[in-house]
Amino acid sequence: MWGFSFWIVPVFSSLVWLGMLLGMLLTWVTDGKPHLASMDPNQSVAYISDIGATDLKPLFIAMSAVTVVSFDLVFIMERWLRHKGRLAHNTSWLQKILSIISIIAAIAGAAGLILLSIFDTLRHPRLHDAFLVLFIAGYVVAAIFICWEYQRLGIHHRQYRLIRMSFWIKLAFIFIEVALAIAFGVMSTKEHYNRAAVLEWVIALIYFFFVLSFALDFVPAVDTKYHHSEETTLEMAAQESALAGDGADGAPGGRFYAPPTANGMNGGYTNGAGTNGYTNGETGAPKPNVPPSRNF
């Protein structure tokens, strides 16, 4: 069951993100927790963006881009797999619209992270903060709409427990991330930078689990690899019905009536001879009846 499949993409994306966080944090810690140029004088805990504005900026940009690009592919694949019937299919246009909105919001969030990693907090503090808001808001909105889609799917596909489980995971992510984002903003506004920095690291770690949760959604696609989508099945049935309506030789209902056979041969012949209905290979007209000879 666990061969290569779509579930690997969110796992890859989440591990790239986690690897970036650990690499940046451990580098800062092993360097002796230095006070970086972008840090406030009273700040002792570095923000992710503080470390990302150092010589680790290329790493920050590259791994952030890989994370969000691959994660946005997850949203697109989710839509495609449902269309193809590899995942529980959408039962209404509303569900499809919700999925499309989540894709658009995820793309906006991805743009926010890539841009905030480029416009670092040391040289472009205002742009950096604006793109940080875009990043967080984009993925929270994406989570809201895909969670809404899963809620509707769960109503129509009650037999799939994974949909309900995924719904609750994503709903929990929404509430936790929104609460932490508000707390982060309050701490930053009140200049409690150390607390705000800790909250930023926690928000980033929870984002890792959110990305990873999509692997659960793609597990059913492994078992439906060779299944046709509902649309494909209906199209094939329509084509077969159309072909069945055009019968051979004008026969109704698509039935072909072959001439009668005997012993498996066509033409009504017997003994395998094409004799126009006569037996034993006779090809001439039948002999007239004559009285039997009396010369016994």
TrEMBL record:
<feature type="transmembrane region" description="Helical">
    <location>
        <begin position="130"/>
        <end position="148"/>
    </location>
</feature>
<feature type="transmembrane region" description="Helical">
    <location>
        <begin position="168"/>
        <end position="186"/>
    </location>
</feature>
<dbReference type="GO" id="GO:0005886">
    <property type="term" value="C:plasma membrane"/>
</dbReference>
<dbReference type="GO" id="GO:0012505">
    <property type="term" value="C:endomembrane system"/>
</dbReference>
<keyword id="KW-1133">Transmembrane helix</keyword>
<keyword id="KW-0472">Membrane</keyword>
<feature type="transmembrane region" description="Helical">
    <location>
        <begin position="198"/>
        <end position="219"/>
    </location>
</feature>
<dbReference type="InterPro" id="IPR019402">
    <property type="entry name" value="CWH43_N"/>
</dbReference>
<feature type="region of interest" description="Disordered">
    <location>
        <begin position="268"/>
        <end position="296"/>
    </location>
</feature>
<protein>
    <recommendedName>
        <fullName>CWH43-like N-terminal domain-containing protein</fullName>
    </recommendedName>
</protein>
<dbReference type="InterPro" id="IPR050911">
    <property type="entry name" value="DRAM/TMEM150_Autophagy_Mod"/>
</dbReference>
<feature type="compositionally biased region" description="Low complexity">
    <location>
        <begin position="276"/>
        <end position="285"/>
    </location>
</feature>
<keyword id="KW-0812">Transmembrane</keyword>
<dbReference type="Pfam" id="PF10277">
    <property type="entry name" value="Frag1"/>
</dbReference>
<feature type="transmembrane region" description="Helical">
    <location>
        <begin position="97"/>
        <end position="118"/>
    </location>
</feature>
<feature type="transmembrane region" description="Helical">
    <location>
        <begin position="59"/>
        <end position="76"/>
    </location>
</feature>
<feature type="domain" description="CWH43-like N-terminal">
    <location>
        <begin position="5"/>
        <end position="219"/>
    </location>
</feature>
<feature type="transmembrane region" description="Helical">
    <location>
        <begin position="7"/>
        <end position="29"/>
    </location>
</feature>
